[in-house]
Design brief:
With 94 residues, the chain is mostly helical. It is 74% helix and 0% strand. The longest helix has 20 residues, at 47-66. The protein starts with a helix and ends with a helix.
Length: 94
């Protein structure tokens, strides 16, 4: 009886490992990008902008960790973030 329990536990663990979903780097980058877009058009010295920027940086770091060991998703993430950052920077008042 004990052997059946061990076998069942091992099967559940193996199935749960195999069923992990693939991380979407573009979707994670979109989350960060949406956050950064809140600062679009704000002055660099604006305290609210700095607060939002720090929150976005935290989200960016958390999302990057989710991409660990997934090179294609990481590349999609970085590409999308670079495009977004460029758009936000171009919209800043000079």
């Amino acid at each position: 009886m004990k052997n059946y329990f061990v076998f069942a536990a091992l099967m559940v663990m193996l199935l749960s490992i195999g069923c992990q979903s693939k991380v979407d780097g573009t979707a994670l980058a979109d989350e960060v990008c949406d956050c950064r877009m809140k600062t679009k058009g704000m002055q660099r010295q604006d305290p609210e902008r700095k607060k939002i920027w720090l929150e976005c940086s935290k989200i960016q770091g958390e999302n990057f960790v989710k991409l660990k060991n997934d090179k294609p998703a990481e590349e999609a993430y970085n590409k999308k973030l670079n495009e977004c950052l460029q758009e936000v920077m171009n919209a800043m008042p000079k």
